[in-house]
Amino acid sequence: MNLYQQPERHLVQFNAGKCIREGNMLKPDLRKGMIYMDQGNDQLMHFYWKERKYNSEPEDDLIIFPDEAELQKVPECTTGRVLVLKYKTSNQRLFFWMQKLDSDLDDTVIQRVNQLINDPSSALDDTQMDLDSSDHSIEMELMQRLMGSAGEGNLTEENLMELFQQAGSLR
After folding, report:
1. Domains and CATH numbers, the chain
2. Residue 32 and residue 99 in contact, taking contact as beta carbons nearer than 8 Å
3. What main location does UniProt list (predicted)?
4. What is the value of pTM for the model shown?
5. What is the distance between the alpha carbons of residues 89 and 41, in angstroms, rounded to a whole number?
6. CA–CA gap between residue 103 and residue 101 (Å, rounded)
7. pLDDT by residue (tens digit) across 108-159?
8. Given CB 3.0 to 4.6 Å as the disulfide criterion, which of 23, 36, 37, 68 pairs with 13?
9. Is residue 35 within 8 Å of 49, Cβ to Cβ?
10. Cα(61)–Cα(79) distance, rounded to whole angstroms?
11. Measured between alpha carbons, how far is residue 74 from residues 39, 110, 132, 163 in Å?
């Protein structure tokens, strides 16, 4: 393995954890994760989720056809940044939570994901959006908030469970 190997580049990539559905409740999967999209050799648009461990393989590889799904913010989430990938042709919903503390580019990321879903030919412009954060102190602060750390302005476990319960009622 070459230590100077360039990291993989994707059409869009950003740090996000998965949410695990338990009945009508959602809870955060606390692993450090990443969502990214690429156009495969099959010329289809792939939506991936994987752990951010060195050399990890994607845990999820979803093929999304044009206008089949949409990534949206969960509007009921007022204390965090939860996203839902909603399929238009079924009741399937996949929930994710943003793992980068700075929310400035959230709307841009959502717009880019939806652009790639609805217009896969836009991938030909070779535009890449990498929001992968190497700032682990930011990730740790967010993890502490999500874990219910005590302190002013932090998200408690009770608030988080309420948030995920509300997000689960979006079906």
Report:
1. 12-168 (2.30.29.70)
2. yes
3. cytoplasm
4. 0.69
5. 25
6. 6
7. 999 999 999 999 887 766 555 555 544 444 444 444 445 544 344 555 566 6
8. 36
9. yes
10. 29
11. 26, 12, 22, 10
